[in-house]
Predict the structure.
Amino acid sequence: MKDILDELEARRAVARAGGGEKRVAAQHAKGKLTARERIELLLDEGSFEEFDMFVAHRCNDFGMDGERPPGDGVVTGWGTVNGRMVYVFAQDFTVFGGSVSETHGAKICKIMDMAIQNGAPVIGINDSGGARIQEGVGSLAAYGEVFQRNVLASGVVPQISLIMGPCAGGAVYSPAMTDFIFMVKDSSYMFVTGPDVVKTVTNEQVTAEELGGAGTHTKKSSVADGAYENDVEALAETRRLIDFLPLNNREKAPVRPFFDDPARVEMSLDSLVPDNPNQPYDMKELILKIADEGDFFELQKDFAANIITGFIRIEGQSVGVVANQPMVLAGCLDIDSSRKAARFVRFCDAFEIPLLTLVDVPGFLPGTGQEYGGVIKHGAKLLFAYAEATVPKVTVLTRKTYGGAYVVMSSKHLRGDFNYAWPTAEVAVMGAKGAVEILYRSELGEPEKIAQRVKDYEDRFANPFVAAEKGFIDEVIMPHSTRRRVARAFAALRTKKLANPWKKHDNIPL
Ligand code: HXC
């Protein structure tokens, strides 16, 4: 019996050694952890249960029959994050460069199937040279099987991709279909075609980092939701994110202990909005002052910063926040901010996470760049996302909200549940100056008359009361009591039930 047990231990030791000491040392030399080290940091200590440790590839071409390392370049299994179940796969770059064979792909599919069946998130750690070149089409088939499962899992269980090395070619499309992508600075990249192909086809000279590094994807392309300094930070932040999310679309997000009075008053908010309507202020201050313990998990912070998206907790419950940021482009809506916020709103709605919308928006950004880029369709995404969302929706108007953007930003007309306004809010078709220039065009040569007209228009509309008179604003609230009012609103909505008409799926403008 002892021999049998020793044999198991010996086999396990071989599998755990991955591609061997030399390749592990090379991995470390690049500042990267190994697949197993990453899983250990991601999951609660001792919670990892491995699947398919002994699975080996079946390829006999190109000398592959002589080398069948157990595990085949990917470590898969399940474990817990702060006691809650997650499924995980981590590609092992030390074994065939983490490349995807038929069996490697089948291991990933197995845990994805279990995650969908049992209702727990999938976290994928990507570090791979792509399709296993020796296997040819078998490898492409394996990717196809993974892609299919990414789509079936979408909206059923949260899917998170960590890019911790190469991720190139068609392989990028698996992370692309997951809910969140996080990258590590300087040691990860994603692109459909690499620098060599780019050079050949377009004659552009670009490094892998410039083409698809963490900076590119968090600042320019918006493919990634966050960039971290190293593996350790990326894994720790992923644990933090998991704490905000439900395990699946039929469960509520966890309620965490909180030590922050829901009725906390913040007198400083009474002076957050400057007297000068053209002066910006930092909307993040309001988010932090509403959140339990000032804890905010921001997504896509370096992209379309005119809108802020992320998670907070109120009374221990997860809330998705969307907020215009007056500090950037005056907080206007444009193509990028609409896309960014629409995707976030849809994630929250799919996973029953209530939405808090903080509004100070001058309208949509004008210009040929925006119109030619299709702002009509992209702006419609956010409108569509809010309108279809059935989760609790609480909105606070802090300052201006004009035109179409007023309707888009979780207004009463899109089934907003609680729509509050600060006394400083203005709800209008447009700013007073623009309105007067259209209404009184014949008087434009008479500055005094025009000034009076502007004042008249402001007196009528530069306040929240016209909207409140019509019931479009439920209540005008004191800024200092925002946390209390918002907390009570969400508490009142815990039993909300709302369903859309049956359909196969909607046809959101893409
Ligand atoms: C088999 C691979 C491999 C692959 C790397 N290796 N990629 N083995 N198939 N795709 C092996 C190497 O032979 C090497 O083995 C080990 O992994 C480490 O690779 P190195 O090249 O030494 O590492 P490094 O210098 O860090 O370069 C990493 C790399 C490079 C940039 C990823 O390996 C590379 O260019 N690989 C090929 C990438 C590629 O063209 N993939 C196919 C893309 S098409 P030893 O034994 O020496 O350690 C694709 C389509 C997917 O992926 C489509 C989905 C629908």
